[in-house]
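Example: LysM domain-containing protein.
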Amino acid sequence: MLSLPAQTLSASHFAAAPGRVSAHFSARAARFFRWAVLAALLALLTACGTTKVQPGYYRVQSGDTLTQIARKQGTSVSNLVRWNNLSNSNSIEVGQMLRVQAPAGQASSSPPTKSRGKASQGTKSPAPTMGKRRTAPPGAISLVWPAQGKVTRGYDGSGSNGIVISNSTGTPVVAAAAGTVAYSGSGLRGYGHLVIVKHSTSFLSIYAHNSKLLVKEGQRVSQGQKIAEMGNSDSKQVGLYFELRYDGQAVDPAGSLPSR
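Written out as structure tokens, the predicted fold is:
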């Protein structure tokens, strides 16, 4: 819970400058409201990291490598790369959900070692279900690409709630649409240097893992305005993690981005 610092006020405070005291409390109330709004926005992000892991999936923890995960799950790195459409074996991030069992209709390239004797005829485990792909209403928002580079991870509504655009450190990161900066900082673990832009009562966008932040909270930004520089803060690879949210839910940004 957010607590305000205690401060002793004597009668002379009110007698000498009532207007100043009133302004003082108004400023404190404004700061309290601002932090409450930011806490609500950050709660939307942290909620992604507390959702229940579905059977057949694994949530990446700090310090994990794909090799370690494959070993613990009794599969191979090549399977994990194929099942999760990873561009390379180093492109995983803390909090990312990985499929660790073969999807329906696909066989594992490295099945577990067969035991001696007659194989059991056990019931097959049900295939893990993919998350629901959410999209914004058609035409509700028009975005520009937040950075130049290659999309190395896409949205799937389950393991990835956004997209990753990979390029070199310092690549400009721009606001995908006009709005107000709701957050600019590095207080949320796993997102590095983070910017959140609120576009309307329904839409906000998230820009994570930057090397440098160029905007402040409360600042108005125009579409295409540079707001940060690409980096790898809280990430093993250089790239921008971009997420679009509609009414608090992560949605596939592809339908709102221009083709390229």
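Residues 150-256 form a domain with the Glucose Permease (Domain IIA) fold (CATH 2.70.70.10).
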